[in-house]
Automatic annotation (TrEMBL):
<feature type="binding site">
    <location>
        <position position="32"/>
    </location>
    <ligand>
        <name>[4Fe-4S] cluster 1</name>
    </ligand>
</feature>
<dbReference type="GO" id="GO:0051539">
    <property type="term" value="F:4 iron, 4 sulfur cluster binding"/>
</dbReference>
<dbReference type="InterPro" id="IPR040064">
    <property type="entry name" value="MoaA-like"/>
</dbReference>
<feature type="binding site">
    <location>
        <position position="18"/>
    </location>
    <ligand>
        <name>GTP</name>
    </ligand>
</feature>
<feature type="binding site">
    <location>
        <position position="31"/>
    </location>
    <ligand>
        <name>S-adenosyl-L-methionine</name>
    </ligand>
</feature>
<keyword id="KW-0342">GTP-binding</keyword>
<dbReference type="InterPro" id="IPR058240">
    <property type="entry name" value="rSAM_sf"/>
</dbReference>
<dbReference type="InterPro" id="IPR013785">
    <property type="entry name" value="Aldolase_TIM"/>
</dbReference>
<comment type="pathway">
    <text>Cofactor biosynthesis; molybdopterin biosynthesis.</text>
</comment>
<dbReference type="GO" id="GO:0006777">
    <property type="term" value="P:Mo-molybdopterin cofactor biosynthetic process"/>
</dbReference>
<dbReference type="GO" id="GO:0061799">
    <property type="term" value="F:cyclic pyranopterin monophosphate synthase activity"/>
</dbReference>
<dbReference type="InterPro" id="IPR000385">
    <property type="entry name" value="MoaA_NifB_PqqE_Fe-S-bd_CS"/>
</dbReference>
<comment type="subunit">
    <text>Monomer and homodimer.</text>
</comment>
<keyword id="KW-0547">Nucleotide-binding</keyword>
<protein>
    <recommendedName>
        <fullName>GTP 3',8-cyclase</fullName>
        <ecNumber>4.1.99.22</ecNumber>
    </recommendedName>
</protein>
<keyword id="KW-0411">Iron-sulfur</keyword>
<dbReference type="Pfam" id="PF04055">
    <property type="entry name" value="Radical_SAM"/>
</dbReference>
Length: 330
């Protein structure tokens, strides 16, 4: 694998790309979307061939890790074709973030197509609360999907839980027991102010990673994991289990100095930071240069100069970024 040719003004190497394959989703999670979302018209959305071309060029520039996300990646038609194609690029790590609703049928084909790891969102183990948070989701379907993913033999499965006070913070011990029983990892995420929502007050709902750790410590010892994830999550182990517990704390822990990632939205906008608007339009370059990739590669290399030093999320829930997470690619 080649050394990454992507470095920014602050000496950070970018070797991880998150590609959004759709802005559409079968769920409407209260922290992620408004209830009445309008989705992008088809011509604004990259084709699967265009997404693969972006991925291939990032790999040629030294990218070692790709995550497919959305929206819900498994609602994109023919997504397996894209997974199969990217699966041939020799990545060190190829992953997907999914809500799990389609995994009973898709887990095995995904694994066979070359996907290494899955992150599955799970905010509640109570069917009614789950429905309330996702607005449309069916908990049983997702739990069956998690089992199907375990049987398919992925290298790693991690659950993602966005913790909201008064909503699912009481379920933290149950979620930990569930992860231990299923022998999967779990990360608890602080809600980020992405997109304007009226459903709840993000400032009031914020449950910090510190608070989540305190709750878990009433039940289990948490030992900081020695290995560096290289990402925003800080991991802990429990002495009597293989399950790792991660904390993603955009409010209380600034991880920008080691940021190694960029995102590409499904419109082909290369976003240099989750918490800033700095971006470059790759769709224009892709469609203006359909035959050769030189211009595309140079555009990606030059874009690194735009990567900001850090983001500034405030804890009062104020929206600083108008993009919803489904537009950004979570
Ligand atoms: N549909 C897939 C899923 O549900 O995992 C992938 C896309 S979703 C946008 C990716 C992740 O972003 C999910 O784990 C979700 O919980 C998280 N997320 C969405 N909005 C968020 C917010 N405002 N703050 C923190 N995490 C958020």
């Amino acid at each position: 694998m080649s050394q990454s040719k992507l470095t920014d003004r602050f000496g950070r190497t970018v070797n991880y790309v998150r590609l959004s394959v759709t802005d559409r989703c079968d769920f409407r999670c209260v922290y992620c979307m408004a209830e009445d979302m309008t989705f992008l018209p088809r011509q604004q959305v990259l084709t699967l061939e265009e997404i693969a071309r972006v991925a291939r060029n990032f790999v040629d520039l030294g990218t070692e890790k790709i995550r497919l996300t959305g929206g819900e990646p498994l609602v994109r038609k023919d997504i397996l074709e894209l997974v199969k194609e990217i699966g041939t690029y020799g990545l060190r790590d190829f992953a997907m973030t999914t809500n799990g609703s389609q995994l009973t049928t898709m887990a095995e084909p995904l694994r066979k197509a070359g996907m290494h790891r899955l992150n599955i969102s799970l905010d509640s183990l109570d069917a009614e609360k789950f429905r309330n948070i996702t607005r449309t989701g069916n908990l049983g379907q997702v739990l069956d999907g998690i089992d199907a993913a375990r049987e398919a033999g992925f290298r790693g499965i991690k659950l993602n839980t966005v913790v909201m006070k008064g909503r699912n913070d009481e379920e933290i011990p149950d979620l930990i027991e569930f992860a231990r029983k299923k022998q999967v990892d779990i990360s608890f995420i602080e809600e980020m102010p992405l997109g304007e929502i009226s459903e709840h007050d993000r400032g009031l709902a914020l449950c910090t990673s510190e608070e989540v750790r305190d709750i878990i410590r009433q039940h289990h010892e948490l030992v900081p994991a020695t290995e560096d994830s290289g990402g925003p999550a800080r991991y802990y182990r429990m002495p009597d289990s293989a399950t790792k517990v991660g904390f993603i704390s955009p409010h209380s822990h600034n991880f920008c100095s080691t940021c190694n990632r960029v995102r590409v939205t499904v419109e082909g906008r290369l976003l240099l930071c989750l918490g800033n608007e700095h971006s470059v339009d790759l769709r224009r370059v892709l469609r203006g240069n359909p035959v050769t990739d030189d211009k595309l590669r140079q555009t990606i290399i030059n874009a690194m100069d735009l990567k900001p030093e850090r983001h500034h999320f405030s804890a009062n829930g104020d929206v600083q970024i108008l993009r919803f997470m489904n537009m950004t690619g979570g």
